[in-house]
Amino acid sequence: MSHPAGTEHNCPARRTHAFACLLIGLSLLLSSCTTTPSPDAGSVASSDSAQEPPETRKAAPKRKKAPPPPKRFVMTPEMDEKLAAPMLLLLEREAQIQQLDKKLDEAVQETVRSKAKLASQESRAEAASNLAEAEVALKTLKGTVKGLEKRPDYEHVAGLMKISAEELRKENYGGSLFLTNQIKAQLRDLQDRIESEQQDKSASIPAGTSSASSAFDVKLARLQTLLSEKDAQIRKLQRKLDDTIQEAVRTKSKLRSQENRAEAASSLAEAETAMKTLKSSLPDWDRQPEAAQAGAFMALGADEFKKENYSGSLYVTNQIKAILKDLQENLQGRETIAPVEGEVLLALPLTLKVAASGKAYERPASDAAVAWSVERGASPTAVSYKGPWIRVKGEGGRWGWIFYNLIASP
User: What's the CATH number of domain 341-406, 3.30.200.20, 3.40.50.360, 3.20.20.140, 2.30.30.40?
Assistant: First the structure.
C-alpha cells in the first residue's frame, strides 16, 4: 500500500497531539469533580425518606405535656370569718353538753335516792328483766361497733348499768327500773349518733372539688353539720334533764316529806331574790337560755310549796340557785372589759386548746400592739369573738385577742 508523501514524517506529531488532548480532558474532568458541592446529609436523608414508602416510615413519638401543679389552698379573710364562728360555736356547744350531762347525772342520782326512800314495791322480776334487756342491747352495740369502749358516751352508759345492778341487789327495784329506762334511751341516742358519724365518713367529696373555694365549702358544710348535731343533742339533753327533775319532784311528793316548811320557804325566797338581782344587773337577761329555765323551775318550786311538798320545793330551789350561780360565774369579769363593736359573747366561758404558737393582740387586728406571746399547748379562756378574732383571758388575768386558727379545731 502506498502512502502519500510526508505521512510517515507527521505520524509521531499527531500521536503527541492526541495524547496532550487526552491529558487536558482528564485534568478538566478531575477539576470538575473536586469543585462540585456534595449533597448534604439532610438532603440525602430527606430524599431517602421521600423515596421510602409511607408504610415503612415511623411517626415520631409525641411528648406528653406535664400536668399543671395543683392549686394551693389559700384562705381568704372572708373564708376565715365564715369558718371562725361555727368553729367557736361548736366548741361552745360541746361545753354545754358536758355541763348538761353532769347536771343530768346529778338529777338521776337524786331521783334514784328518792325512789330508794320510798321502799318501792316494784316487781323484782320486772326490774331484773328490764336490766337484762339493757345489758343485751349494750353488748350487741359493742359487738357491731369497733372501738366503742373508747367513746365517753359508752363509758357513761356502762357506768349507769353498774349503778342499776347495784340498786337491784339493794332491792331498790324502782330505782333500778328507772335507771335502766334511762340506759335504754341513751343507747338509742348513742346508736343514732354512731349511724350519723358513719354516714358523714362515707360521704365523699364530689368530683371537681379540688379548687380552694370547693375545699372551703366542704369544710364549712362539715362545721355547720356538726353544729346542727350538737344543737339537737343539747335540746335532747335539756328535755331529759327537765323530765328527770320532774320525776325527782314527783318522787319526793310521794315521800310526804317532813322537811321544815320554814326552810323551804326561806330557800324559795333566796332563789327569787337572787334571780331578781341578776336580772336587774344583766341587760340581756331575757336572751340567756338559763333565764327561761330558772323561771320555769321557780314556778315549779312555788307550786310544790303550795302543795306542802316542801322536800320537792327545796330540791327545785337548789337547782335554781345552781343555775344562777353558774350564770353569774360565766358573766364574772366581763364587766371589766370594754366591749368592741360587733363583739359576740359566748354563752359560757370556754377553755381553749392552743394548737400553734402565735400572738395575742390588744385589739382584734393583726396590726394592733402585741399583748403577749401565746405558746402551743396553752389553755386560755374565751369569753367572746368578733369575726375570726377571739377575746381570751390568759395567765395572770390579762386580756387579749387571738386569731381563730391558733386553736385546735373540733
Answer: 2.30.30.40
- 74-98: b (≥16 Cβ within 10 Å) or e: eeeeebbebbbbbbbbbbbbbebee
Between strands 389-393 and 399-403, the pairing is antiparallel
User: 285 with 152: CB under 8 angstroms?
Assistant: no
pLDDT tens digit sequence for 349-364: 888 999 999 999 999 9
Non-local CB neighbours of 44 within 8 Å, separated by 6+ positions? none
DSSP letter at 376?
T
| Alpha-carbon distance values, 313 to 105, 252, 272, 290 (Å) | 20, 9, 13, 19
Q: How far apart are the C-alpha atoms of 79 and 215, rounded to whole Å?
A: 11
Domain layout of the chain by residue ranges: 76-199+213-255, 256-332, 341-406
What are the pLDDT digits (tens) for 104-128? 888 888 887 777 776 555 577 788 8
